[in-house]
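Hi R.,

Here's the chain you asked about this morning:
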Amino acid sequence: MTLMGIDWGTQHIGVALSDHEGLMAFPLKIIPATSQMEVFESLKDTITAEGVTTVVVGVPVGTEREA
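And here is the predicted structure, written out as tokens:
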């Protein structure tokens, strides 16, 4: 089981992968947030190449909305 963590920012998207046990995460790359299409293509390629089974997206601090 390999998990991908995504830290979505307005200028950069950080990507991390877990070990095969899903216990620890390690930084993989930073994707410039220039084009949505390029970002999604890069993420798709990484998911396929690394055999990712689960994707976790972080919520940026300070953007939570009150109910």
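One quick note: The chain has a mean pLDDT of 90.

Cheers,
M.
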